[in-house]
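Hi! If you just cloned this repository, the fastest way to understand the data is to look at a raw example. We've pasted two of them here, unedited. The first protein comes first, obviously.
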Amino acid sequence: MPVIRPADNAEQVEHVMGLLRLLGEAQEVSSLSTALRAVAEVASLLTDATEAGVFVAEEESGLMRMVASHGLGLVAAGDNSVFVLGIVPWLASEDSRFVTADEGEVELRTAPAAFRKGSFWTPLVQGGQTVGWLVVAGLSDGPPDSTRLKFLRLTAIHATTLIRGMRAQTALNLRVEALTTLAEVGQTLASTLDLDRVLRLIVDGVARLSDATACSIMLLDESRETLRIRMAIGVPEEVVRTAVRKIGEGISGRVAQTGEPVFLRNIADATGGLRGCNPDRYRSPSLVSLPLRSRGQVIGVLNVNDKREGDFSAEDVNLIMLFANQAAFAIDNARLHDQLWQASVTDGLTQTFVHAHFQRRLKELVSAAAVGQDSLAVIMMDIDFFKKVNDQFGHPIGDVVLQGVAALLRRAVRSNDVVARYGGEEFVLILSKVPYRVVLAVAERLRKAVEAATFGARENPVRITASFGVAMMPADATEGTELIRLADENLYASKRGGRNRVTSSDAVRHLAELELAPATASGRVERAGSPGTEVDC
């Protein structure tokens, strides 16, 4: 065979078998870099070159990056990636080229030193476009002869076929994985209303399929003026807890404001007009930020950044958009369910929980308190002489008073406490894991707040007072219905004692005093050894 150095037939056969073996290995492997490494070795053997390499154009930027080599002595396969060719006009041509030392030092400064002199460059052409180069170097006798050149071009065609096939396979695998993940998200959506679970699936899927290390979903708050992170992967916990973006601020704020996606190849080139944007916090320059839309409105932003290698591609962006649509649907679905649930458990007039929901929550919280050996308080409250309010001012003003008292109660307790309308002008609260002295202080603070408040029109304000009864677990009872009964008895003890006061049992009062020792309790708090027996302290 003329392309092999002169030798006896056995040596020629051995070389041919070696070439065929390498080409076969290149066809079988699943890694493009491994396959092209075999191609580089074939090219080296065919031309008696001491070094060989394969450059491939990045699909988005078009820059030529070396992905495989032979004879360069690189320690690891990843070392190839540091060689990215600058903009050289002839790199876009379809003509082979022999590079002399003078040309190479000027045009190929970012290529390996061996490729800058006495190297032969063969284009990898696909669909009329040069997608890479097969390079052989160390050719002391000049360009390959015509026979070797033909085999080199055949090898280049083989390399192009490998690139096309593996890119198509990669794209197909990515699409299959994306559809599988989207199907999983859809199945989860159909089987659960747990928004956090669905959003976790989405950020995990986006990060995995786009090869990103960071992904977050930010949602607008009720004011629609501020974005906060609801779910994230690859973002420090402190950032998740504290990150806030106002509308128009930073990249996320801009996307929320305009409703337009942002796709940046280099964030440093696009931060001039973005307040609150800090490019130093990103480990790689490429970033994707997409609006989450529901019913024609932007409800949040999906951010994806810190791709492990290279920049995000148009295919990545299209994929992320699919997940953005799923995220928006999940959020809308969960919010709709929450609205329906709220409507079913909330009193329409006062926006407090209804009696049935109060009973369910009391049962749950009593069980939890028993397991954790925690305190639990039930505070019952009744507006004094409410019938007189309706008789004197009319029922519409009575409704205003009820709404005002309910709002006052909701503001005065924690978000995890329960405030419910027990019936008519009577309200009930459940406070979990609160010391005895604090419960009594809260009840007294509520009493004073009701007494000081005015309701209705400013020119004709309505003033009221309220009576309170407190029962606590475990001091008074260890069962829900008994807590309600004792709180109700203490409430009516307050009524009989003159109204506008708080009544609790001797046991609760004693434990509260122990918690305060050696200091004495302050404020107007009553205690009842039995219903109807109040003692000022």
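Ok, and the second one:
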Amino acid sequence: MNLIKVLSRVNQIEKISFLKILDKFCEENREKNPKIDKILTESDNILKKAEDSSIVHLFSLLRYGYMRHLETSIIFSNLQLDVIVEIFIRDGNQMMSKDWFTKLYKKSLSSLRKHIKKINSELKKDNGDISTEKRRDYKIYMDCVNTAYTNDIQNNREEHITWSERTILHTLSKSLRLSREEEKSIRYSIVPPKKHEIDDVIAELKEAGIIFFNRKTNTIFVPDEIIYLLRKLLGIELPNKYLRRMLKHLKDPEINLIARNYNIDRKLNRTEKIQTIIEQGVNVTALLTEDMHKAGETKVEKAKRIQTLILKDLDIELPKMGRSLEERVYILLDHLRNQEKEDTTSLSKDGLAKLLSLIVEFKPDLNQVVKLEFEIQNDDVMNAGLLNNYNIGPRDLLYLVPKNDLAGFCKKNKINSRGNLIRNIINNFRNIQDLYFDNFVEIGCRDLNALKERGLAVKESELGLLYEKVTKDIFMKLGFNVDENLKKKINTARSKMDILINIGSKDVIIVECKTIKDKEYNKYTAVSRQLKSYENNCKTKGYHVNQVVIVANDFTEDFISECEYDLNLSISLITSLDLKKIYEGLKESNFDELPVRLLLKDGVLSGDRIVKALNR
């Protein structure tokens, strides 16, 4: 769930810790960055007065400073936050109840203590299950951690490992090819892990700006934007779901080589080994360049194997492959990181809902598979809105289905079964018009970057017409008669309406669409002249304008006031978001079409109030 969604789920008091941190960086960087100064000035220099979209923009501008703050908070915490934040960065753990978090916290501590015991036991043996080289690496790393922790005593300071020391230790662990779990277990064998009260943990996480906590629903939220920063801090190259995809395509000997390199029990079956490799937190680059390959293989042979993994096993099409082993691994990981943002938006909500309905009917046990795979607490997880909140996209689901079952699903639903089955299934449920509807707000504010991230290639010059087209489609779905023939008859070469709704008896509603890069539409004088011209054209042809509706992303207070006191026209204002809410509300109501009287009100129309009226 992204930051703007999280901000809408918590109240002002629950945002306060986050806003205090952000405000500190705003003041430090305001003079250097005019964009920060502009946002603060528009909010009367009080951050908590800023709109959620402005706060998200500020976070984006200040994310590197925020990451430094997270570093400090984690390293100097008395509650061992580095153990806790690893819970959140796992797939499906960005939103959870307090009770579920308590369960995962206890499970994480229990697992850590188990690994500490195992490593300490191995180090005491002369001949254990691990190689002499691995035992030597453990001892080297443990000695270095011990020195980093205890050298403060000599300087009469409290014992702790500084961030710079931890950075050096992390570099050492990468050179020794230790997994994140091995690194953490050795460190906490020197600094024993403690169990803390869950309320204290939540309070510190909230104070550090890592989580938001809704007290009313007892729900913890960790925005996607903060998850990305935490992954970067912990050196995590990929979400687990992508590592799992790769491991499932590796051969048994390759899986066994990886397991041996990370001291994983050789008696486990293939599925258990894969799960343990994921839980170990292995370095993915090291896994692809070294761990999965037999001793003595040349770089050319390794590069060929990675090419096969990309093109044949994962069936990924890349614009360039790279020549060296390192280039191919980098390009693959970069592709998967970018795919994470695209996957959840590759289908519209309606398209994903239809896919979920059919795939669950075909494979009923998939619900339980997804629930366990992503550690989601809900019983019924095959819900488009819920999966979107957890950043779980259609590819993530389809990769959990065996290939034979995918082929059977394609056959049953008459989907092309040649080539990449997952791509064929997604394309079958992909409706570009629905995707435009889902991104209606982004089109309205001409946010090309957001549209590009979501797989919608639109030229800036096309955004105005696209916004008009999507608005027209929405009004048609609301049950109105969008009369194109009448519009052509009334329009002149110099005065052209965007949308004309024919409500019968020579009565019409004019809809005017406005896109703007600024957050609010404020050009009343210009739009007023346009609307009066449209009304005169309608009168000339014998039609009466019952109402004018202006659709834009937002409006300034001055614009709203001018419209309310216009003596010549009855003008309704509605935002892109509220128009979407009305359409979604109509689908859930008992009405087949929106009663026209709900639009015949001057001033700003409230989507929430109209939806409430539909559900009475």
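That's it. A detail worth noticing about the second one: The mean pLDDT is 87.
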